[in-house]
Amino acid sequence: MNCAVCKGNLLCGRQKCPLLQKFRFLKAIHLKPGNIEKPTPPSAFVGRFGYPSVFVGPLISMQENAEYLDSPWLWEGSVEEVISLRMSLLRGMKRLEVEKASDPNRFLLTIQEATASIKAVALDAEVDRIHRRPTFGDTIQPIGISAEVKRIELSENPKIPAKVEKVYYDDLKSVEAVKTLFDSGFSTYYLQKIFSLGMLGMQKKRKLVPTRWSITAVHDILGEEIKKEIASYLEINETLLFSYEHFGNHFEVILSPGEFSFQLIEIWIKQSFWSPEKTWIGYDGEGILPKKDYSNLSGGYYAARLPVLEYMQKIGRKGSVIVLREISPAYYAPLGVWVVEEGVRRAMDDNPLKFDSLDDALKAAASKLKTDSTLWMGKLKKSVQLTLGAFFS
User: Fold this and answer.
1) Which among 80, 95, 354, 369 would be 20 to 30 A from 315, CA to CA?
2) pLDDT tens-digit profile of 224-263?
3) Residues 169, 150 share a domain
4) C-alpha span between 208 and 193 (Å, rounded)
5) Which of 267, 297, 306 has the alpha carbon at shortest distance from 7?
6) Does 136 reside within a domain?
């Protein structure tokens, strides 16, 4: 099984991912079983192993800057700096049935209140059985050590927005609830957390959602809802090229006249994290109709699509989209799909280059990548390739 396809999900049949195992050396924070009084960013984590019986618990900060530890839109620097930052988070764990969200007990209610807060909240917890193996993944942000939680209480009142409380107590479908809060200005990161803890949807049908699933679910829900809005928009009348690079990930985004379509090419350069032995190139795409199958590029696909759709919504125009994501060996550890979401969003926030044709924009994008364009050009949809007569001339 190719590592770039598996991305740590153990599709190869191994019990442990050999690439992820090399991060066992990371220095663990000093913690002993017993009582701790520390803040949550606020945030929580819902595991997926053992589903529908999963581990649930708060993320507890061992540092003072609790909120910053869970604010990826603010992060800058290197892969190592992000890992170091996130290793100071303790993942609390208690096993619950996912259906418990429809009738939450005191433990779950406490975590829901802490996570729904827009400010860090102090917790008083009793932990036991400390596990010093960090958590990494292609979708989730790195997390430090974990510990089973015997008891947890809030040491102060959480600050929960009135709009969130209203949606929580209303009987809205999950899609409507997510879109309502997003349109009210709540970030995808906030929505992913409360969605994961079963705080959205019809009250009698609510379930806990593993964190990695909730991240992609929110990206997908919002993407499909915005697609409905832009379907009637006029087409953009020029070809634009947006660029951005961070954490060893280089993004080129081309927006050109035409009906809405979205194409993503991922290029994992040899010796980058998920492709240690050779360069791997993946592709996926869609049109205006709802995407039927889960992307073979996993959560990064939906994370890349959403910021482009947000841009179209903002300018009131639609168009054809090509996103090129090139991952270099500098990306030596998985940090989560926020790297993609923020990379594309920051690209779209910058002033684009303007071109007379898609051919010219593709040439300019190709010139900024390390990978030879002949290796990835053939991945593009044939309808796009037909416009590229001048590309190789």
Assistant:
1) 369
2) 999 999 999 999 999 999 999 999 999 999 999 999 999 9
3) no
4) 10
5) 297
6) yes
